[in-house]
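Quick one: LysR family transcriptional regulator from Pseudomonas trivialis, structure tokens please.
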Amino acid sequence: MLDLRKLRYFLTVAEELHFGRAAIRLHLAQPPLTRQISALETELGFKLFDRTSRTVTLTAQGRSFLPYARGVLEQVELAQVIAGKLAAGTAGQLALGYVSSIALSDLFSQTIQAFAQRFPDVQLTLVECASGSLGAQVADGRLDIGLSRLLPQGEEVQVLSLGDERLVAAVSSDSPLASLPSVNLAQLSAYPVILFPADYGSGLNQTIEQLYRRHGQPLRLGPTGRQITSIIALVAAGQGVALVPTCTQSLMNKGVTYRPLMEGDACAPLLVLTRKEEQNLSIRAFMTVIDEVVRAG
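--- reply ---
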């Protein structure tokens, strides 16, 4: 295996084409430098330099070998830089899981943008999934961080609350509800509610079911959608109403009107899930960024 130190000596002499000046740059006496170059030539099996008492020039083999030697040293320097960033948590990989209703929020987009700008060497993988599976995927390491609306089962996951997001009613623009400035659950109870599938493990479903139960209103089940976008499409098609986070209003579907809910407790939680005792520095960096975005917002 080639000695990296000898490659550095070779590169310096090739740049200077003078052993004396190269030795000064390397903080080395000239005789040891000459011996190291000779040893490298022996290892390689060919001469690198033609030397006279007055000139030093690269041989044909030396010129051909030079870019490869330079490339090796550049890769070593890059590896050292990346190693330092990995040690500092500013490089690596990060798998972020999220539920579809959170992906529409300003918090989500601003955090992703800020993190990517600050830590460009961290490869961020985004995985959309149901709230019911997020906790398990964080616990077993498939995901590093989860953005959820559902408290996970088990003790392996640490939960940080980022607060609550108000819910609004999405109603068909043809519905009498669309003409009202705001609506309440008593008015909505006359309509089927479009939810995520029951086996989806949706935190938003759980929030809506608990809200109807607290206010003593019957919950009529309508068709289901596996994405927040499909739920809104079903509302536009007149298949029922939906209770969705405020950020969903960015989906300006034709045929859908959003109305505030009168109930003060009509809110959906926003939770960040990580593994307990997690030492991954990239995760800590992401948590710092999302905390800054929450405080700024």
